[in-house]
């Protein structure tokens, strides 16, 4: 069995937009290095100043170096059919696989990460960076942050790790079913093994325990593992994988409950890697207020946190259409509802006659009575119900409650007669969550598809 101990230097942190500036490959037979290869590479793009400061490699050094296409065949032949070994193996592998593919070569190797291997065989170290690990283990590094120097140090580290490998951990990690090498370098495999095959919400955390991503799953173990398949070379994915040190989870009774918890947790925690859900907000609300003359007035306005809205809408047009229907039905003043602003008097849509509220002809008492009737109609149309579904274990049920058209909360119980006395007794046992139109639409769609799980309250 032959190993290729690899280190590369690059112009940046992800393969899709950066080049390789140096490659070093030590062919190792399990006991010693039997062949070495190293070369500078012209990346055909400028080397950033901070990379030069770190590695010492500058544009002048690379101008006469071969391009990657010039050496791709030789690199492929050295790596092909070997076990690819590197410190944080997925970084080096993603770069070489990406650039070899661009040159017409399909690299397919088993991988072995000396970061992950060191964590298993030499646990308890404060840092597993190559420099600090080599210092702690008294491994000399010549030309730190140059490919050949780091590859040589990694080769010595690999020899040492084999001495610690009394229980066959390396062989276990190399098994196809192990999936060990696809995991981020700092994430222990036991974090994946302990995940259940149940719906829930998972939390990726960095080295300090800060939550950097929240996700939902129909099957926690499968969904979390799916994050680490493939070798996508883009910057976002590579930085994301380097960040993950821990994964925690909360089991939910159903996928719907996981979706709701995920939406609430993203809004509560605001993780840096959750982009799509962070952008979501229902954008417009219907509000009621009393003006200086005592008239109650309706208005469509942008969503404001902590303001009690009567109804929420996904667009301004949707809000205006709803308000227009109220005006027609209850003969409200369009001008007092901010749908007419240019005329001094307002006109109904059916007959063109002014109802007189904006001119003070219709009294406050009469007009407010009509508007309150409209509000009562809106309130009466808002549903109150519970969805009773599967729990987290066999003897348990889940309960999800909507009250007056807004999501109230959810929880778990063991007695299906729990709901026989209505909503009031059960509210104290539910966890309360924020409601928005996204969550409410999820619930209403689910209730429509599963009417047998619906209990009207």
Structure description:
This is Exonuclease domain-containing protein. It holds the Pfam family GIY-YIG. Residues 197-275 form the GIY-YIG domain. GO terms for molecular function: exonuclease activity. Keywords: Exonuclease, Hydrolase, Nuclease. There is one protein chain. With 457 residues, this protein is of the alpha+beta class. Helices cover 36% and strands 21% of the residues. The protein is built from 17 helices and 16 strands. The strands form 4 sheets. A 5-stranded mixed sheet has the order 3-2-1-4-5. A 5-stranded antiparallel sheet has the order 15-14-13-12-16, covered by helices on one side. Strands 7-6-8 form a 3-stranded antiparallel sheet. A hairpin with a 5-residue loop joins strand 9 (284-290) and strand 10 (296-302). The termini are far apart.
Itemize the secondary structure elements and their pairings.
Blueprint: E1 3-10, E2 20-28, E3 33-40, H1 49-55, H2 59-62, H3 68-79, E4 83-86, H4 89-102, E5 110-113, H5 114-121, H6 130-136, H7 147-164, H8 169-174, H9 189-193, E6 200-205, E7 211-217, H10 220-226, H11 235-243, E8 246-251, H12 255-269, H13 276-279, E9 284-290, E10 296-302, E11 311-313, H14 316-330, H15 364-381, E12 385-390, E13 397-403, E14 406-413, H16 424-427, E15 431-432, H17 437-449, E16 454-456
Helix pairs in contact: 5-7, 12-17
Task: Name the descriptors.
single chain, 457 residues, alpha+beta, five-stranded mixed sheet, five-stranded antiparallel sheet, elongated
